[in-house]
Amino acid sequence: VQLVESGGGxxxxxxxxxxxxxxxxxxxxxxxxxxxxxxxxxxxxxGVACIGxxxxxxxxxxxxxGRFTISHDNAKHTVYLQMNNLKPxxxxxxxxxxxxxxxxxxxAFDIWGQGTQVTVSS
Length: 122
Fold this sequence. Notes:
The chain contains no helices and eleven strands. By secondary structure, it is mainly β. Strands 2, 4, 5, 6, 9, 10 and 11 form a seven-stranded mixed beta sheet that branches. A four-stranded antiparallel beta sheet has the order 1-3-8-7, with no helix packed on it.
């Protein structure tokens, strides 16, 4: 039971990337919230964006509002994170996580992926 992320890469500042998150061994129906977190070697895991699997409610951390969009394609069983106008400070390993409560606390999430690296050059 795990999540599988993809879509990371190297992009110049101002560019865009779309990350994908797919469940393996379970379905998103089993969890109420799917969130994207990010982490660097110097920082704790930070919540970036969350989406409710039932009602589609979304929330973002202030630093990405207006630039990132989280979405859920039920037919493809995939959660996306569209990232536009990327900045060097967005450089991090991005993880998706499944949980039962919408919170920015990483400890509340039960299932994680292995992460995908996003690097934004200046």
